[in-house]
Amino acid sequence: MVSIGELYTNVKAILENAGIDTYRFDAQCIMEQAFGTRLPSILTNSTAAAPENVMNQVREMVEKRAQGYPLQYILGEWEFYGYTFRVGEGVLIPRPDTETLVEQVLDICRENQLKAPRIADLCSGSGCIAVTLKKELPDAEIYAVELSEKALPYLRENARLNEVHINIIGGDVLSGQTAAGLCGLDIIVSNPPYLTGKDMTMLQTEVSHEPQMALMGGGDGLDFYRTITPLWRNSLRDGGFIAYEFGLNQDEAVSSILKENGFDNIQLRQDTAGIIRTAAGRKITEEMHNG
Ligand code: GLN
């Protein structure tokens, strides 16, 4: 017989030996998922035999995790900004870095007294940005644009799960036709793919299981910013905003792209790790931009 306490100890040992730095946390999540309850209450029965079916479930999850499969995909859901999102192969896992982007958009709305802003989230993926904005700004009109057929079901499910109505658009953000479908927006927000060609050759095992199309931003990682900024500029009202997330050391390049395309008042923000992670700019009026 394997007791519940022994099972827990084994799970931690296997994950630690597999080189998972966060093995304690991962072991806890796996136990909680299999037992369907929180760890302290699982361990009140630590000398009891672990039920066969639960043990099989734990074994399966531990095997995957030990091979570097993302914990978030194993659990099937993950928290972002205090809300729960379904995740799996086909969507980028919501990262805490992206909460910085959400906060920046919320601050723009507050500072400019936008009570019912029209906002488009480009490359929406799991919908963590679009859904969170709608939760935080119930009067906003939110559009979530996503190309991937694999991601769209997650986006719909996450809106349903969080009980919000957002407008989900299946389309390519790099196409003029998609951009032409939306106009008069107050804010465009996007966490587009931004990894460089070099980054893509050195992905962490976990990240290599995430969709390439959500990660790969071209040779220097900046393809999406270069295309989206002029293309979607027309969908913004004068004085509207673009807010972008980007990767390490891309702040200057993204700021330049915004300035070159007629955005000023560029505001940068650091994420919780101290990396400059987001930039927002304000669309200057047509005459000023051209003249
Ligand atoms: N932050 C992700 C990573 O480092 C990349 C996300 C993206 O390209 N938008 O893996």
Short description:
The chain contains 14 helices and 9 strands.
Number of strands: 9
What is the rounded distance between the termini?
80 Å
The CATH architecture name of the largest domain reads 3-Layer(aba) Sandwich
What multimeric state do the chains show? single chain
**What class would the helix/strand composition place it in?**
alpha/beta
Query: How many strands, what sense, and barrel or not for the largest sheet?
Result: 7 strands, mixed
User: Taking Cα atoms only, what radius of gyration do you get, to the nearest Å?
Assistant: 21 Å
In percent, how helical is the residue content?
40-55%
Low-confidence stretches: none
The CATH class of the largest domain is identified as Alpha Beta
Overall tally of structural domains: 2
Side by side, the strands of the main sheet go 5-4-3-6-7-9-8
Number of helices: 14
Ligand inventory: glutamine
Task: Describe, in plain words, how this protein is organized in 3D.
This protein has 291 residues and is an alpha/beta fold. The chain has 2 domains: 4-67; 89-290, Vaccinia Virus protein VP39 (Rossmann fold), CATH 3.40.50.150. Helix content is 43%, strand content 19%. It has helices spanning 4-17, 23-35, 39-43, 52-66, 71-75, 97-111, 128-136, 152-161, 176-180, 197-201, 205-208, 223-233, 251-260, 286-290, and strands at 77-80, 83-86, 118-122, 141-146, 167-170, 185-190, 236-245, 263-270, 276-283. The strands form 2 sheets. The protein has a 7-stranded mixed beta sheet, sandwiched between helices. A hairpin with a 2-residue loop joins strand 1 (77-80) and strand 2 (83-86). The protein starts with a helix and ends with a helix. The mean pLDDT is 97. It binds glutamine (GLN). Glutamine (GLN) binds next to loops.
